[in-house]
Write a structure and sequence with these properties.
241 residues; alpha/beta; Rossmann fold; N-terminal domain of TfIIb; 2 domains; seven-stranded mixed sheet; four-stranded antiparallel sheet; 13 strands; 26% helix; disordered N terminus; binds S-adenosylmethionine
Length: 241
Amino acid sequence: MLRPVTRYADDLSYVHHTGFADLARGAARFVVDLIGPERRRVVDLGCGSGIVLRALTDAGHEAIGVDLSPAMLALAKRTAPRARLLQGSLYRVPLPSTDLILAIGEPLNYLEPDARPPALAAFFRKVARALPRGGRFLFDVIVDAPGRPLSRRAWAAGEDWAVLVDTTEDAARTRLTRDVTSFVRRGRRWRRTRELHHVRVLRTVDLRRLLRDAGFAVRVRTSYGEHPLAERRRAFLCTKR
Ligand SMILES: C[S@@+](CC[C@H](N)C(=O)[O-])C[C@H]1O[C@@H](n2cnc3c(N)ncnc32)[C@H](O)[C@@H]1O
């Protein structure tokens, strides 16, 4: 029996960076347009391998990335050498004052490594405190929207990696379990690793209420600019009032 973890260890981090970068690239284009030309400070929570951070520093902004996974941060160090990186949970790291806070690619759905659901109300208040009036908070999450259950088996593969994902959604649509097996070529051998991710499904109506209570005006989107979000994903573009 595997313990539920939010891991992104070496191999899954490599697979995500190599094979699943489209969302981060789409979000990065959207964010750089959203910010405009003036130099800003941006904090990217759950920054993963640093694709958004790199687009930000290339556009002249100050970028700070936070992630739980040391393997993701090692990739981010190479991808975005001019960004500042912090290892830790986005719920616990102190947030510096900043103009924009991001959480791209569902980090807010993940349960803590001990599988506890962290409280979003306190987190949204912390985000609001770090922003000036008019400052922005942008994130995307899996929501309980109309559509088929997300339970399914899927696979993807590249030159030197393959990943099999067995997703189970509970009947009440409150949680997903992703049983992820990845294969990565190491020299002449292939290494197999398995991670079990527990994530919560969030309700748009709850998020709107919590964000409003924390002092945000909220717009819900189904794309980052030209990049459509996957089924049952929504992006929340929040402006501090
Ligand atoms: C699907 S990846 C997305 C990475 C990146 N934002 C992107 O779009 O490519 C989710 C990331 O969230 C991170 N994560 C999950 N829970 C977290 C937490 N509580 N604190 C910090 N990072 C977290 C994971 O380590 C992982 O790097």
